[in-house]
Prion-inhibition and propagation HeLo domain-containing protein (Trichoderma harzianum), 132 residues
Amino acid sequence: MSNFEAFGIVLRAIPILISGAELWREGYDKGRLAFRKRQYVDKLANALLLQRQTVSETVHLIIARSGYRYDEALLNEDPIAYFQNKKIQAQVEDFLGDENYKALTGRLRDMQTTLEEVAKHLDGLIPSHKVW
């Protein structure tokens, strides 16, 4: 997997985590303790949505400015396949240069690691997934 394919993984994972947060929120009773937890999950879902929008706009700007035609429908349909395209990878690498490319892909790997951690913790919060 190329470093740039992490964009696709991040863009694919965020909506899944948002759905998990929404499932968690719907699964708890309306008690006081659950209400406090629900507030945190709402904040998490909003933060994930903002992160997805930020990554999407970053991708859009980089691809458009690199000279490659930005295909939003294809990106939304299968972001991982979109970033496996060698032409897109080469065009973006040329546009960004070595230092910016390294910085961007490093940040993407950090986001991917963070999303994996969020997914692990979120799974334990969903009531239907708790082991009794």
Remarks:
- The helical segments are 6-27, 32-66, 72-77, 79-82, 86-125.
- The chain has five helices and no strands.
